[in-house]
Amino acid sequence: MRTLLIVAVVIVAAQAFVRPGAAQEAGPVPVPTPDAIARAERAIAELQTTLVGRLKEELGRGGPQAAVTVCRDEAQQMTAAIGAKHGLTIGRTSHRVRNPANAPRPWALAWVASYADTGMADARPAEFELAGGRLGVLRPIGTMDMCVMCHGPREVVQATIGNLLAASYPDDRAVGFAPGDLRGWFWAEVPTR
Ligand code: HEC
Questions:
Q1: Does the beta carbon of 23 lie inside 6 Å of ligand 1?
Q2: Is the dihedral of CA 104, 106, 108, 109 positive or negative?
Q3: Which in 76, 82, 87, 132 has the greatest CB count within 10 A?
Q4: CA-to-CA distance for 86 and 72, rounded, in angstroms?
Q5: Residue 97 beta carbon below 6 angstroms from any ligand 1 atom
Q6: How confident is the model at residue 32 (pLDDT cuts 50, 70, 90)?
Q7: What is the rounded average pLDDT of the residues 166-187?
Q8: Comparing C-alpha atoms, which of 71, 76, 64 is closest to residue 146?
Q9: Are 148 and 159 a contacting pair, CB within 8 Å?
Q10: Is the C-beta atom of 78 inside 6 A of ligand 1?
């Protein structure tokens, strides 16, 4: 029974994951797939550069407390704007989110959960066929030194930025990360036709 269950889970997982080479014969997303992946990656790169750039800017200008406003007040809007500019939907997620609005998309849930205990080095990118001729793209996000002041041990976060986060995120699960940990994922949903 247990073996059966494991076999079933493996089959479901294998179906969800579209390997780069397999995309051609996969059906609903034919030729434009490599194109769609490239578009998603360009948007993700821009989002990453923009967020880290704004973080560093605010850290230099007003310190950690000022930087919180980038993540808390600007991140969602910047994310939506960059998605719109590239003609797709984009966001960040994690197995342990701070903002419930960043919960994994339904198609990404199993993949994100399966990497909950993995370091950044072992996290694998993935693509998924979605309904409506869209492609789902997941790219891992590592924890860097500069992330720890807001995502590290709770006492460190508390000491650096005080109660600023607790008030906005009463159910904050995005603490306890160390450099090298998998912090979360960029996701994108790209139209392929
Ligand atoms: C100044 C504090 C601060 C720093 C520094 C910071 N973050 Fe965050 N982070 C936040 C806040 C606040 C949120 C929730 C707001 C949002 O983006 O929706 C968040 C959300 C996230 C999310 C989205 C998932 C979730 O938990 O809601 C990811 C992924 C993330 N951060 C990664 C990072 C990485 C990687 C770094 C280092 C490069 C970093 N953060 C540095 C404050 C910070």
A1: no
A2: positive
A3: 82
A4: 23
A5: yes
A6: low
A7: 95
A8: 64
A9: no
A10: no
- What length does the chain have? 193
Can you tell me which atom of ligand 1 is nearest the CA of 168? 12
**52-109 pLDDT tens trace:** 999 999 999 999 988 998 888 899 999 999 999 999 999 999 999 999 999 999 999 9
Q: How far is the CA of 70 from the centre of ligand 1 (A)?
A: 9
Q: Is 95's C-beta closer than 6 angstroms to any atom of ligand 1?
A: no
Paired tokens of 193: 């036709």
- In this structure, which amino acid lies at residue 10? V
* Encoded amino acid at 148, one letter: V
How many angstroms from the chain centroid is the CA of residue 130?
17
Structure tokens at 46: 């821009």
Confirm if 152 and 176 have CB atoms less than 8 A apart.
Answer: yes
CB atoms within 10 A of CB 7: 10
Find how far residue 147's CA is from the centre of its chain: 15
The per-residue b/e assignment along 145-166, b for 16 or more CB within 10 angstroms, e otherwise, is eebbbbbbeeeebeebbeebbe
Asked if residue 45 lies in contact with residue 85, where contact means CB atoms within 8 angstroms, the answer is: no
Nearest-atom index, ligand 1, CA of 149? 5
Give the span between the Cα atoms of 64 and 60, in whole angstroms: 9
Q: Hey, which of 54, 98, 141 would you mutate to test ligand 1's pocket, going by the most ligand atoms within 8 Å of its Cβ?
A: 98
Nearest-Å Rg of the Cα atoms of the chain is: 18
